[in-house]
């Protein structure tokens, strides 16, 4: 269940808990953009800072690592695609297919950047209440006048609340399939089908129940959101993040 806790809000008094949620969203955008231009040394420094923040903010590092294993499949696919499609000095060759050194380096950097962005998102979710994220999305709404702000903010809030449930259901489904001996089958497609179909059915059933419950309680888009206030510490943090990102891109 540790994966679930990584996606839950954890109360605390860390620096990240005290920051304004609007600044946190800006930090995510700035750091994500900077990581696209960052090399290995900058990514290593950023990863070290993120690990320190994870330890300071509360979420256990082992829960983050267990969570990353779920996305490791996609990261491996991205790495293989980059290793096979990038021209350069061949490391392995088989007929017309070759794995290049430049491709392996590029794939590793891309996967590292994605892992960094996922970790930053986890830091936001674990240190910010969903209602505050919803209020911040509505606050940024003038920047995107063509989007329905209340619907988008409610959808984001529901997604954040639904992620722990998806992990719960995935674990229960995997345990049930393991008890039925599905893991004995060597066909990965068969095992994946036996996991995904019941999991998706459970998720959609729960979503229907949630929609019915919200409708029965006359849920409205017009909710009272928490008041957002910026402080001096938020502006100082913004300056530190911008300066750090410039350094990341420069080195």
Describe this structure in words.
By secondary structure, this protein is mainly alpha-helical. The chain is 74% helix and 4% strand. It is built from 10 helices and 2 strands; from the N terminus they run H-H-H-H-H-E-E-H-H-H-H-H. It has helices at residues 2-6, 15-18, 21-37, 40-57, 61-85, 101-127, 130-139, 149-179, 188-216, 232-250; strands at 90-94, 97-100. It has a two-stranded antiparallel sheet with strand order 1-2. A hairpin with a 2-residue loop joins strand 1 (90-94) and strand 2 (97-100). The mean pLDDT is 80.
In brief, what are we looking at here?
This protein is mainly alpha-helical.
Number of helices: 10
Helix and strand composition category: mainly alpha
Strand proportion, as a percent range, falls in: under 5%
The strand count comes to 2
Q: What distance lies between the first and last C-alpha atoms, to the nearest angstrom?
A: 39 Å
Q: From N to C, what is the helix and strand string? A: HHHHHEEHHHHH
Q: Biggest sheet, strands in spatial order?
A: 1-2
Q: Mean pLDDT, as a whole number? A: 80
What can be said about the biggest beta sheet? 2 strands, antiparallel
Radius of gyration computed on alpha carbons? 21 Å
The low-confidence runs, each spanning 5 or more residues with pLDDT under 50, are none
Give helix % range.
over 70%
